Structures are given as C-alpha cells and as structure tokens.
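Deviations from the work plan: none for this task. Representative record:
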Amino acid sequence: MTRALQSAEVVERLQGVAAEAVSVAAEGEVRVAPESLVTVCRFLKEEPEFAMDYLSSITGVDYLDSFEVVYHLTSLTHNHSLVLKTTLHGRDDISAPSLTEVWEAADLQEREVWDLMGVRFTGHPNLKRVLTWEGFPGHPLRKDHLGG
Amino acid sequence: MVNLPSEQITINLGPQHPSTHGVFRLRVTLDGEVITDVEPIFGYLHRGTEKLAEERTYTQIVTLTDRLDYTSSMINNQAYVLAVEKLAGVTVPPRGQYLRVLTAELQRIASHLMGVGFFLQDLGASGTPLMYCFRERERILDLFEMLCGARVTVSYMRPGGVFQEPPPEFWPAVRHLLDTTPDAIAELERLISENEIVLARTKGVGVLTKEKAIDSAVSGPNLRASGVAWDLRKADPYDVYADMDFAVPVGSNGDSYDRFLVRVMEVHQSIRIAEQCYRDMPGGPVRSELPFFFRPPPGDAYAHVEASKGELGFYLVSDGGIAPYRCKIRSPSFINLTVLAEMLIGWKVADLMVIFGSLDVNMGEVDR
C-alpha cells in the first residue's frame, strides 16, 4: 500500500526550509505558499527521507474567488505519497512558479493547466497551449468560460 | 569526394498518417536522415471530457471514461469508480471487486495485444501479426458483449460495483478463453520474439533511461521496460489485487524491444490473474445500491489504477451536488509523451515510428 505521509510531520520537517509558507491542509495534504513552492519541492525531492522522485499529477481547480493548484507526489523509493496544494488569488493574470526545473514531468502538465485553466507558470521554458490551439479564446475549464 | 552542402528540412508527419494511431502530428526537423528536432502537436481529439464531466451525474460520467483510451475502457471505468467510491466512502461487495479485476485483466490483454500488433505493423510486418493479435482480442470483446452488450465502449462498472451479474453462458466462455489464449500468445511469440528483423529494428533503438523515465513521470510498461519494478497493482493495490499472485515483468535496457517484450510478458501475468479470479470468484451481490441522485459529501479524492498504458488517475472534487465540481484525469499516454522528443533526437527517420509505436500511446487518452 502506498503510505500517505502525515502532513503534520512533513510540515514540521519543512520548518527549516520554508517556515511561514507551509501549513497542514488535511490528512496527507500540505498547503504551500506559491513563492516557496520550488524550494519546498526541491527539498522533498532531494532529502533522502522523503525522496519524492515522481510527480504524478498536476491539477488546476477554479474556486471562483481563487484558484488551487494540486500536486500529487509519490516516492517510488519509499512507496509513500504526499499532496501539495497552493492557492492563487485573483482571476486575471494569475501565476505560479514552474516546477520544470525540479521534475521534467511538470513540462506537459503545466502546459495543460495553462491551456485549460489559465494559470501561468513562470519559468516554464515553453509555455504554449497544448490541447487547444494558439488563438483559442479563453481557458475552457474555468467556471466562467462560455463556449460559443 | 565532393563535399556536398546540406541544409536541414522540416517536415510534418500527420495529423493524418497511417502510423500515428489517431490524429497526431509531429513536426520533425531532419539533417539528411537524422532527426535533429521534434515538436509533437496534438489536441485534435480534444472533446473536453473534464468539462463535460462537470455537468453529468456521477453515474453518467462512466460513459465518458470509455472514450478516453478506447482500447482499454474497462480499466478506465475502474479508475473512475474507485475515485467516486473513495470520495463517498462506498464499499464494494467481493463479487463486484472480483468481476472488476477479471474484466480489467481481460481488457489489459486486449489492449496489450493491440499495442503489440500495431507496433509490429509499424515495423513493416504488414498485416499478419496484427491479425494474430486481433483474433485473440475479438474473443475478449465477445465476452464483454455477453456482459453488457457493448464491445468497446463498455460502461460496465458503476460506483459501488458492476452493472449486472454475468449471464450463465459467460463462465464457460471465460474458461474456454483462458484455456486457449496462452497457446495463441505462444504462437505469436514464436513468430516474432526471435525474429531477426524485429531484433535488428528494435534492440537498442530509442533507449529510455531509468532516471529519465522516473523524472518525467513515465508510467506503465514503458517505465517497467526501463528497469523500474513499479506497478500500482502491487505498489498500491486496489479492489482484490492484494490477494492475487502475479509477477511484475521488467526490462533491462529500456529500448523499444524491451517495451515490446514487457507487454507480451504482462499478457501472461494477466492470464494468471484472470485464472485466479475465475477460480476464487465469490458469490453474492455484484453492486452495493446507491441512491439514484447520488451526492458524495464535499471534499476531494484521488484514485489511480495501473491501466494498460500506465498510471490512470482521477482527481474528483465534490461540492455536495449530483455532479462533480471538478474531474481531473491523469492520463498516462499524455504524460508519457513528455519523453518523446528526447527519445527521437539523433535517430533516423525510419526509426521514428518504431520508437513512437513502442510507447503505445492512445490519442483518445492524450487529448481527452
């Protein structure tokens, strides 16, 4: 069974890296401030006790007053998992730091979130639309997107 | 020798191309015959599945999942219903779980056969091996037709179990399939595995290293061919996989041949699992009853399965309504494409379809 890490323990271990930026979101979930995301992820990947070598999934969710980006991390070494969530406020021109320098797996997934949800990932080397075409109006998975 | 001047050319492969298995375009830059740059362009099959899911009930969405990887709809059903069950805390009766594992493994055989058949077709083994694979796949689809009336878009599973009890004639048909399929696969292996042309075209071609595969979140047979023994049926068992006895085949070189071989070996393991399901199939109901307007409590859940192409995950967010607030699909084929460009650069244009074919991507799942 893949073991979900205790979020309280992870938050405590992260105190030395980004004390103010992390908090417990729910069981097995840690909330991270967007500006500390790259630092936290690099730590989780490189620290042998976590060894989060596998970025399973990146999801964008539109909560109308804010956006949430959800990262599902897995360690193939230890067979444990952790969910990171980051909240982005506002609706126009919202951005989160790109994780492409930590995991290559972020490349296409961040392009998808940008394309469908309109979250810009700063530092992504090739942030182009991936499922719709260049010039597509808007971002279709946003709750206020009207087709037509 | 005259030193001929040369310049790079850029050509388009696809979107309509016999080897792309769907609608997929590659913009390839060539220096002579050697590939120097690749840009994969896709989205031609994008139907907005995630958006459509936001306005359908939890049960209706099962039909959308059939159309993701349409060669593996049983497993898509399973990934989705597991996410709903996790979200709402629904338990599944043992017979329902066994039927799910049985049908999912039969589907994996069908899907791997298609992957292997088209891979050989791309190598130029025109027709014959593909028909060997299709012959076996047809027999599995016949079983699905008995179960639910559909062969490809099955929608057989439901949150809480499966759609209905199999008809009586299903069981002798499964027995017959399990008795005859191993010989048919052995026949295919005799035809192909030691074939000199297959070896020459695939051994050492399109190597994907272990480190690169993990870092790019490659999953499924492609990851295992690179030597990583990671299979969610073992690593994070769901339904009754924890009770099943099976091996996880891994490759050693991460080349196109290993990816082909891992799929063939996984077919044997799937037959083993299906045998155990047939032998141990418990009685009782196949589904726990849920209300017609089923409303999971507010919250979110992520469930993943080992689909035939890799880790297929569903991340569902509920606001307490009859439809999910958000339904994200973690598609293995899409994420496996992350490594495509790097795998192709440096190889000749004739190897392009071999390497692409060995990844076994399905465009329905990539574009969603």
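The mean pLDDT of chain A is 88.
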